[in-house]
Automatic annotation (TrEMBL):
Keywords, in A-Z order: Membrane, Transmembrane, Transmembrane helix
Compartment annotation: Membrane
An annotated Gene Ontology molecular function: ABC-type transporter activity
Protein name: ABC transporter permease
Membrane topology designation: Multi-pass membrane protein
Listed Pfam families: ABC2_membrane_3 (PF12698)
InterPro entries associated with the record: ABC2_TM (IPR013525)
GO CC entries: membrane
Residue ranges of every copy of the ABC-2 type transporter transmembrane domain listed in the record: 62-264
Residue ranges of the TM segments: 35-52, 64-85, 105-128, 148-171, 183-201, 248-271
């Protein structure tokens, strides 16, 4: 019995790593994946750092750099959702059952690959931020509450994976998928606190309430709350009553977790393996 279990585990492990390598080759073979994961976030970081950073004090510049670290994690949405549609339309996935590989194992390999590649993109973005911020950014690192910061990074990536899987399971047309994911992507980066400082766009109560429906807001505000610098945690916590988006960190943790659970539960009922044309 134990030998059979070991053989089954070994076979599944080999299938998993085979799928993982196959997904990796497919990702790096298509220029879209590396472009949106590594190049586009760096472009936004450099551009907006010099455009919005002029006139800011050191705290504002640090806030800008820290928030933009999340961009690679969010851009997973623009790569994974179309990739799922492509895989659904592929001959490989249509015949995967005949190979003895479970489709759930394929999804697990897909999720784990994009989670790790998302971390690599954020690390690359972090190195660029170090080069741009130099001394002011380095001096700020010891003041960060790293537990909240890492949780914010994980939430960003997992939320992007969850949304991409939901959309990829619902649609089969690659063009429609790419257009939809780009709309969600730009809506998220501009109204979640990643690209723009929240005080710039929360100009009315309606807009502020609407931003609570954007899942990435909970991840980006975790990054803001993790920073112990003037004008960040204070402004979004108690110092400024007009921008009291959250009053405690637990609200961010619970809110982000509920969105993750919601997306995966809905995906479980709506995901379609068969691509209907």
């Amino acid at each position: 019995m134990a030998k059979n279990r070991f053989s089954s585990f070994k076979r599944k492990s080999e299938n998993y790593w085979g799928l993982f390598k196959l997904i990796g080759k497919s990702f790096y073979r298509n220029p879209r994946g590396p472009l949106f994961l590594y190049i586009v976030p760096v472009f936004f970081l450099v551009l907006f750092y010099f455009v919005l950073g002029n006139g800011m004090d050191n705290a504002g510049k640090v806030s800008l750099l820290s928030s933009y670290l999340l961009l690679p994690g969010l851009t997973i949405l623009t790569s994974l959702a179309p990739a799922i549609v492509e895989w659904k339309n592929s001959v490989f996935l249509k015949r995967i059952d005949s190979t003895g590989v479970n489709k759930s194992l394929f999804l697990l390999a897909l999720w784990s690959f994009y989670f790790l590649v998302g971390l690599s993109g954020i690390f690359f973005q972090f190195l660029i931020a170090l080069a741009l911020g130099n001394k002011i950014f380095i001096e700020h690192l010891p003041t960060i509450q790293w537990g909240y910061f890492i949780l914010g990074v994980f939430y960003t990536i997992i939320l992007a994976i969850a949304i991409a899987t939901l959309l990829g399971g619902l649609f089969s047309n690659e063009g429609v998928m790419q257009g939809l994911t780009m709309m969600i992507y730009f809506l998220s980066i501009f109204l979640s606190g990643i690209m723009l400082y929240p005080t710039l766009y929360e100009t009315s109560e309606f807009i502020r309430i609407f931003t609570y429906l954007i899942p990435q807001k909970y991840a980006s505000f975790l990054i803001l709350m993790a920073q112990d610098v003037k004008g960040l945690a204070g402004e979004f916590n108690n110092a400024n009553p007009n921008h009291q988006d959250f009053t405690a960190v637990w609200q961010l943790i619970v809110g982000g977790l509920l969105f993750i659970i919601f997306f995966f539960v809905i995906t479980n009922f709506t995901f379609k393996w068969t691509a209907k044309r």
